[in-house]
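cron nightly-structures :: item 1 of 1
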Amino acid sequence: MQEPAETGTDLFLSLTPEKVLQAVEAGGLECNPVCYPLNSFENRVYEVELADRSRVVAKFYRPGRWSEEQILEEHRFLDDLAGQEIPVCTMRPFPGGGTLRRIDNIFYCLSDRRGGRAPDELDEAGARRLGMLVGRMHNVGAGGRAAHRLRLDADTYVRQNLDWLEQHEVVPHHLRDRYFDTALSIAALADRRMAGVPTHRIHGDLHLGNVLFRDGLLNVLDFDDMVIGPAVQDLWLALPGRDAYTRTLRERFLEGYIQFRDFDRSTLALIEPLRALRIVHYAAWIARRWHDPAFPAAWPQFGTPDYWERETQDLEEQLAVIRGEIPPDEAGAVSEEEAARKEEEALTNKDYFWDWEG
């Protein structure tokens, strides 16, 4: 993943409604002076009223995170999905063509305003419906390429992040060896388990905050974290629990999924390694964004010795789960990511328009 581009970062962090309206009008659309920020940590997202009083959502990408080619692959995936009548929110073409513009070195795009209600949890019928939708979505994902997008693997999610954490001396010295050795052991196990597993375009961040009920349909939002990865990633993030009821819901999900696409049940063994990769990736994501004032405000405990002690213990426990030394349903630690998401989803569900992105 690219590091922030210095020439656009300061402007990105200080985006104003006036600058947002200027960007939308520079794209060829006349605006009314109405602009509201929507929930998003990774990017900056605004609802804007056009001169005809219709509303659009303007998304400004964090500078340096994605290249132009990577962003356009996200847009192309959305178009491919919409072409198969899968309910997603595609990007609006600007007058004159194209779905991506740049202002002050900040890429931005527009989409239609979409409401709905994010489910707090799924019942068995809902899990089956979501499985059907994801099966269809993965058929489309496997039918196209995205040569520039990240791959969901131990190099990207663990080793590259560890290199950054070490370079910036983020992990306290007294925990450094424990944390790094555990993370590298997890990466090695993930390499072995993921070897030969088919990968394709997937959502990559399909927790329930990115699913909306609208007009009797399930809609999928926020493909900003689209990756090339194994299908099971989009299953376990939608149903992340380890209890017996979650296992039942996963069975219902798969019942729906296999109506449209085969699923290799042996890849369920990837759930715990993928969970571990995400723990490391999440901590590094916050560390990389700490210069953004929104992050210290949202995660005031991040970076303290207590925080890294908990992260290290969670990783050690996760390694034991992967090795089979602890049954998954006996692993009691709640990761910082899971706790933060529960708190943030309560915010997201209040406005129903755009989920935060991690």
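cron nightly-structures :: done
Confidence is low (pLDDT under 50) at residues 1-7, 342-358.
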